[in-house]
Amino acid sequence: MAACLLPASSWADDRAAQIRAIVDSAIRPVMAEFDVPGMAVAVTIGGEPVFVNYGVASREQNTPVTENTLFELGSISKTFTATLASYAQAQGKLSFDDHPGKYIPALKGSAVDKASLLHLATYTAGGFPLQFPEKFDSKGQELAYFKQWKPDAAPGVQRRYSNPSIGLFGHAAAAALKTDFDDALEKQLLPKLGLNSTYVHVPEAAKANYAWGYNKDNKPVRVSGGAFDWEAYGVKSTAADMIRYLQLNIDPSQLDAVARRAVDGTHVGYFEVGVMVQGLGWEQHPYPVSLERLQDGNSRAMTWEANPVKRIASPVAAPAMTLFNKTGSTGGFGAYALFVPGKKIGIVMLANKAYPNPARLKAAHAILEQLAPMVK
Fold first, then answer.
1. How buried is 348 (Cβ within 10 angstroms: 0-12 exposed, 13-18 middle, 19+ buried)?
2. Which has the closest alpha carbon to 361: 29, 46, 26, 67?
């Protein structure tokens, strides 16, 4: 008796249903445990996206989450900042070996000018704090902060994760492109990447899709402006756009030559920091990777403390079997993204509550472990 073969569409539907079941088993317990109002999860496997949406974008309006709901990305924004700077470098307008004073004359001769743009990008400039001090945490006060800053260490000795550090990197990149950061991102880079629902400034026409975040008291909140907020944590996007972004990182061949070099440039590792490698925006682990190692690479110590680094002598693009990842949070949102080019798998999880990073990593790792065998 001949085997009965399913039509291609039925096979695809069955595969999507299998993926949704995998996502469900990982995500529903997290949402229940941390009282997360809504989540948009997207998976790409072999170039095909699958969207799984949960809950509401606004408890007050009972608006359902979809793949077109806008979420705040928090520090995943740093990967866009890195890509923009890599885009400037690909055009010959910037070198990571340059110092910030070349593009920001007000900083010439200051302590920060001893660091290179690469040091700023990799948080190894010499000891910036995680956040701007309150006195300087408003637009227009950034350069005053950098002029008076004193390092704790020489450039390239320690990594201390920092919004001021990556913020100055993005500011210099925009200056190299002879524009402001928001214009450089929204008018130059994002259109090149085909990301039509990713913003620094959410336009009026998209505001109905902008979710409300919920703080620890379950009050609705959205991000407010601060020093270098656009560069460090200010991007908003959808699961549909973010999974395209991960697909482009997995396979940038569909981009033009300059945009392709920009994306490829963010896959180079520069410093070994404990169990992980710090690149531009993205943080790297050899794949396969254990949950324990992934947690160590995204630990509180990695976020809040200075960690010794080892410079990679000859930086090159990471092997295809590398896991790239980045967490992100604002006061009311929590996000996580990872991709493994060699497996053609990417996962993005966007939530309108800043639930703990370990829970995000555990859920994403569980999804990845079940997806991996599906790829030949």
1. buried
2. 26
Spatial distance between the Cα atoms of 48 and 227, rounded to a whole number of angstroms: 38
pLDDT score at 13: 85
97 C-beta neighbours (distance < 10 Å), count: 8
pLDDT at residue number 236 = 98
Taken in order of first residue, the domains within the chain and their CATH numbers are 57-340 (3.40.710.10)
Phi, psi of 182 (to 5 degrees): -60, -40
User: In this structure, what DSSP letter does residue 321 have?
Assistant: S
C-alpha closest to that of 336 among 40, 104, 129: 40
Contacts 24+ apart (CB under 8 A), 135-138: 136/227, 137/226, 137/227, 138/225, 138/226, 138/227
**Whether residue 288 has a cis bond before it, omega within 30° of 0:** yes
Q: Which of 54, 58, 75, 336 is flagged as catalytic?
A: 75
Tell the residue number behind the tokens 């079941």, with chain if given. 21
Instruction: Decide if pLDDT at 2 tops 60.
Output: no
77 is catalytic: no
SS3 224: coil
Average pLDDT over residues 151-158: 98
Given 54, 87, 103, 161, which residue is catalytic?
161
Active site residue 162: no
Token pair in block for residue 357: 């990073």
Structure tokens, 42: 């997207």
What single-letter DSSP state applies at residue 212? P
237 contacts 78 by C-beta, under 8 angstroms? no
Q: Classify residue 263 by burial, with Cβ atoms within 10 Å: 0-12, 13-18, 19+.
A: buried
Using an 8 Å Cβ cutoff, are 101 and 108 in contact?
yes
What's the pLDDT band for 10 if we cut at 50, 70, 90?
low
Tokens in use for 325? 């990842």
